[in-house]
Amino acid sequence: MTHIATTEHITLSSFLAGAAREERVPAGLIALIDAVADACSSIATAVERGAFDGASGNAHSENVHGEAQKKLDVVSNDIMIGAVGSVRCLRGLASEELDSVQVTGHEHSGGAAEYLLLFDPLDGSSNLEINGVVGSIFSVLATPASGAVVDERHFLQPGVKQVCAGYAIYGATTMFVLTTGHGVDGFTFDSESASFVLTHPQLQIPEDTREFAINMSNERYWEEPVRRYVRECVAGESGPRQTNFNMRWIASMVAEVHRILMRGGVFLYPRDNKHPQLAGRLRLTYEANPMSFIVEQAGGMSTTGQIPIMEVQPEHVHQRVPVILGSKLEVERLLRYHDEAAAA
Ligand code: AFP
Q: Where is the Fructose-1-6-bisphosphatase class 1 C-terminal domain (predicted)?
């Protein structure tokens, strides 16, 4: 169970300053995290005001995945790029809404660590028209060779190399959830002080769960280990698991992962044969990797079904990947079902 700290008023800025003093976060990274958090609070406002500001509905354009963009996808992308553009340690960025990576014009800062930012500015945007939950997801990598001219190859690092990851969720409240590799902390936006305040320190995912999330309409496309797992969950008390399960599907990865952080669960967007040329639905570098980093830092597990997601070597920045993540015991069970199917 999550314990909510309401007694102390620790803002994201003071939390990061403390982490820098204790040398848990490099000082340069703090400016980048602050800028991303500022962007997220502006995106929350843009989402809230969409209907008044002419920003609701379709943009009549497509992103690199061939998906119709909402106006708020484009607005959120512009907000994020505008907010981080002046951060001196940032050398480049990649976004779901940009065809190719962008190199920032800053000169090499002379010895200090420098970073790349990868993000999905508005995840789950098909939920906008139903006033459902949406969010932003981000991942930070270090530039491998300080001073080198940055290009797409520098972004192609496996998730284990992430130095920081997080998401913002725009739901009943706006929250910013962050890891720098020292656990996971959740901050709630306080509109009175216009700051993110630490409300959910050191989140832990229960290792056991009776809740799963998958788009059941894809059942006919799944591989056998996933079919077996879901069949057994659905069979409930009368099946081999001898217990009843509950199912949730919000169609927003941010909302699913947030629920898992709050009360456990397992989330699957597995490999399927709906579009066999694509390895899965979700994107590796700016969706699956940051969420895997968060889930593992909170004691959960994340896998493609074969290997840990964060060990996948990206071949391009918009690559897709099968995703199974959440409570440890269920993810281990799914891995076992995949191993058994491979051995059969
Ligand atoms: P959008 O950002 O295009 O709405 O996609 C959201 C998402 O990538 C992810 O957040 C959800 O888990 C998944 O798609 C939902 O997919 P379905 O359309 O199969 O429900």
A: 205-338
